Each structure stands twice: as structure tokens, then as C-alpha cells.
């Protein structure tokens, strides 16, 4: 079913309803599009909390149904059922507050404790044993991959050309890479 929804973004959203032909349409505070919950200030708080809650629910199901998890079986279950919720659309809702980054990482910390044989190890040691990176590392790596794609014309240049033209300076100084990014006052 197709639904018409109007959302205003900003610190002070516009009026909360519209009237068209004597029919009143109320604007929601949040809109879900392609599985991502957008709010009026684009902070994605509801989305992040929803995904963290969903990840904990799935971990509870795993814990109840698998008494003894081997590292191999844990990785299969975790990557397919839990991890996917924590990373879907992260390019849109990327957390930048330290408390949100920790809140997301806490999910993986708790998940790695499901493996009884390594439960006693510290978090970093559990990650090393499982060959899992932190969630923060995966997000930073994903950002670097996206930047690489922009500057190597992997995306359509008609769409991304303005970004490259505006933020890339050609610099032939031997101390700086030729594809250095510059800081621009305006977008």
C-alpha cells in the first residue's frame, strides 16, 4: 500500500498538519523509509534504539536455542542475524556521539560472551580470537571505501562530480598526496 507522508526537517519543524480539500493530513514525527527511521531533526535516535533493541532480541533467541556455541557457529549466527541489523544503512544514520558508539559496541561485547569457552577473556581478546573487528572500525573502513569510490570515479561522475570538483585540490607538494582533500567554506 502506497502512503503519502510529508515530513519537515530542521530544528523547528513547520506546522504539524496540512489541509487539502477539507481533508487534514497530520505530519508524523518519524517516517520509515527502506527500513531506516527518519526523524524531523535527522538524529535517527528512534532508528538506533530500534536496531539495538532488535539485536538484543535476536541475541536472546540465540542464547535460548543454542546452549553451547562454537566460535564458528557463533560467527555464522552473529554475522547473519545480529550484525546485519547493526550495520544496515549505517552510511545514512552513522553515530557520531560517543555514547551512541559505545551503546552499539556494547551489543557486540555482550554477543561475544555467548561463547562459553572465551567468555572469561577481555573484549579485545575475544575479538582477536574470533577475528572480528570492532563496529567502529567497520564504520570507519566503510567510510574510507566510499571516499575511495568517489575519487576513483566508481560512482557516476554526473552525480558526484560536484563533490570532487569542490573538495579536491591538486597538490604537487611531495609531502602531500596528489588527491588531498581541502576544507571548503561552503558546499
How would you sum up this structure in a few lines?
The protein is mostly helical. It contains seven helices and four strands; from the N terminus they run E-E-E-E-H-H-H-H-H-H-H.
Q: Would you write up a description of this structure?
A:
The structure is a single chain. With 187 residues, the protein is mainly α. The chain has 2 domains: 1-42, no CATH class; 44-133, no CATH class. Helix content is 50%, strand content 9%. It is built from 7 helices and 4 strands. It has helices at 45-65, 71-87, 90-93, 98-112, 123-130, 135-151, 157-167; strands spanning 17-20, 23-26, 30-33, 36-39. A two-stranded antiparallel ribbon has the order 1-2. A hairpin with a 2-residue loop joins strand 3 (30-33) and strand 4 (36-39). It is flat, with a radius of gyration of 22 Å.
* Overall radius of gyration: 22 Å
Bin the helical content. 40-55%
Mean of residue pLDDT values: 81
For the secondary structure, the number of strands is 4
Total count of domains: 2
- Name the quaternary structure: single chain
SSE ordering: EEEEHHHHHHH
Report the structural category. Answer: mainly alpha
Beta-strand fraction estimate: 5-15%
The span between the termini is 37 Å
Categorize the overall geometry: flat
Low-confidence stretches: none
Widest sheet: strand ordering: 1-2
Major sheet: 2 strands, antiparallel
Number of helices: 7
Can you give keywords for this protein?
187 residues, mainly alpha, two-stranded antiparallel sheet, two-stranded antiparallel ribbon, 4 strands
